Amino acid sequence: MTYTCFEVETTNHLAHVRMVRPERANSMIPEFWQELPEIIDQLSAGGDARVIVLSAEGRHFCSGMDLSVFAGNNNVSNQEQAKHGSRQRAGFRSTALQLQRTFSCMEESRLPILSAIQGACIGGGIDMVSATDLRYATNDAFFCIQEINIGMTADVGTLQRMPRFVPEGVVRELAYTGRNMSAAEAKERGFVNEIYGDQDEMLEAVFEIAGEIASKSPMAIWGTKRTLNYGRDHSVADGLEYIATWNAAMFDTDDMAEAFRASTENRDAEFPDHRPLGKGL
Asked: Which of 106, 111, 149, 266 is 20–30 Å from 131 (CA)?
């Protein structure tokens, strides 16, 4: 399928989702918000991919939301706002909820998603990578919660997700000031896993990590992601209850047997692919 903002390729169980509008610093135009959840949902529901790598062409990873996304909400005169203010606000809220789903689908995906970030990652770009499982960056990468600089509150996920793995005081400073956070600081704060010299080096390393993840039991990886996400949002006791229930329903003894056989025979384990969703688990 052809997309406006993305190219998608799956090889050896690794799906590479690339943003392909480098001439506009991969800004998030209206098509972006429709295409990304469609791509992620299809990859997650299919049986070919086990890991997704999200990257971008060009000097910058993502310059954030294109203002054309809100054009329909910004062209109402003051007089019209007075007449239809509540209706307009309801429309804005509905739009925000739809945009949030674009990134929430990455958390909901049964596949781990690794983001490879170079240059600028600002505004909506941070919303997006905050919803991925792992983040890697080049030396020249920087991050900015840009919304405060244009007079609005970030509303698509950064303020909810980033404090889960970056100290809250740091997130508040970034959100209140709109300053840039360098790749070095992002690694120090725990936002990115590792830093690389350039994009080629980063992508080579990220695909190596993705390949290692893809070599594991897809069912066990799915369960691990679901359990980590659940535990993040619940108490320890609730998390323990959840994993007990998950394993009771989803634990694959054949995968464990294959892992033991492969170890004994000194070979790589061979696990079955995900069964496509919609055809039974």
From this structure: 149
Domain boundary among 186, 214, 242: 214
Counts of helices then strands in the chain (DSSP H, E): 11, 9
Predicted TM-score (pTM) of this structure: 0.90
**Range list of β-strands (E), the chain:** 6-11, 14-19, 51-56, 113-117, 120-122, 134-138, 142-144, 180-182, 194-196
Q: State residue 277's pLDDT score.
A: 87
CATH of the domain at 259: 1.10.12.10
Burial label for 147, CB within 10 Å (0-12, 13-18, 19+), is buried
Which position has the token pair 């890697």? 136
Backbone angles phi, psi at 59, to 5 degrees: -70, -35
- Residue numbers of the domain that contains 32: 6-214
Q: Give the whole-angstrom CA distance, residue 76 versus residue 74.
A: 6
CATH assignment of the domain containing 16 = 3.90.226.10
In a domain, 229, yes or no: yes
Residue the block writes with tokens 């990886």: 221
Contact assessment for residue 55 and residue 115, using Cβ atoms and an 8 Å cutoff: yes
Tokens describing residue 98: 């739809």
Q: What does the pLDDT read at residue 251? A: 84
What token pair was written down for 77? 């005169």
Number of domains in the chain: 2
For residue 276, being part of any structural domain is answered with: no
Length in residues, the chain: 281
Is residue 63 classed exposed, middle or buried when 0-12, 13-18 and 19+ CB atoms within 10 A define those classes?
buried
